[in-house]
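Write out the bound-state structure for citrulline.
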Amino acid sequence: MTSKPAVYEFNAAIVREPARSVVNGLRADDRGNPTFDGVKAEHAAYVAAMRAAGVEVTALPALEAFPDSIFVEDPALVFPEGAILLRPGAETRVRETVEIAPTLKAMFGTVVDLPTPGYADGGDVLTTPRSVMIGLSARTDRAGAEGLIASLDRLGRKGEIVQTPEGVLHFKSDCSLLDGETMLSTKRLARSGVFKDFREVLIPEGEEPAANALRVNDVVMVGADYPRTIEMLDKLGYQVVALKTTEIGKIDAGLSCMSLRWHRGQRL
Ligand code: CIR
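---
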């Protein structure tokens, strides 16, 4: 019998090519539009890093009508047991779920809908070995989070509602799993005590966006613009892959949001 893969072990992922309209992606503060070529290059490097880490990547075509559709993490959740179609909390993104549904229905035996009412973005959902944490935010409301707990239950997973810090886009904007016991977190999120059951590694002051790192198999992908975080993780013994996120950062994105990742082929 093979053992259950760790929550950061992935052999399959879905990404979506950036559309030219990505330059008009949503953002909280306008620091100027990203360039299309810049986003495309960052996305291509990310996909290459995924493949180098041992993941089979399915790339979906660009959707011009949806500027933020490159961020496939938000309209759905995927697990070895099945997928959940979510309802993103930003009006311009709600129909991204309809766009990704056929792919998920073709790739997963079980696809569950988020019940109505309520909204939930995948960026607010962190899967840990203990539970699936759902951060309340401007994109994920309580009704959506409670509905998601019911959907997770149908897949045999336990959901837990937590709070995203005020003014932070998504729960995972401020944290990521480094391994089964260790959480990388901003100080402002860790302060809430939400990770008391984990070993915490805190982001150096001023590098908060680096918290949206991504553990994939043996490597931790980290934004290349955050040298102190990279050095810290390197010293802790993690195998860091630095990836440029300067352009996608202008539309509030980081490394987790550009893929849906899971471990395929596990016998349940
Ligand atoms: C948005 O505001 O929805 C996009 N501009 C960024 C989404 C980033 N998604 C994520 O971190 N999961």
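---
The longest helix spans residues 36-52.
The domain at 12-262 is CATH 3.75.10.10 (L-arginine/glycine Amidinotransferase; Chain A).
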